[in-house]
Amino acid sequence: MEITCAQMDVLISFYLEGDLSRALKLKVEEHLKECPTCRTKFDIIKSMLNDLKISVDNKEEKVLSASSNSQYRIFQNNLSAYVDNELPAEETIKIKKFTINNKKARKELENTYNIRKLMNDSFNKTRTDAKYDFSKNILKQLNLNEEENFSFHPILKIAIAFVMTVLILSAIIVFSLTL
After folding, report:
1. Rounded distance, CA 140 to CA 158, Å?
2. Which tens digit of pLDDT belongs to each residue from 88-126?
């Protein structure tokens, strides 16, 4: 039994899907070898299906990526409130689930906790040093007399010391995050 070109029009899709019996599959392959017209149709259909599959796969990846990016933006927007325990329970659970499933989010959360700890430690150290007039100690270490320099109010000295400490810690944190 020979397969006609009209029959091939129907059988090509079944052949591509792998839904033909072994005997019919062999007949289709034989016809494709002998008939250039059906072979051209087959190649065009196969190419179109491959292009369609690639297009669908790319769209699925974009949708998944967009969804992940959207969730990550929500995570970033709520991170500070999460760390400070200011989120409702439902939002806190969402952040926890996202963090568990996302390595980048876990790293960012860890960095946020580290920054918070550094800032608290810096604040406590500055507050402790302020009791001993931090600026005066620095001037003594530099062997400078206070009379030769501008005289600052003690509260202003504390504020300057705190700002300098925050700037130094911020520089260290930015440098460590870029590594």
Report:
1. 16
2. 988 888 888 888 888 888 888 888 888 888 888 877 777
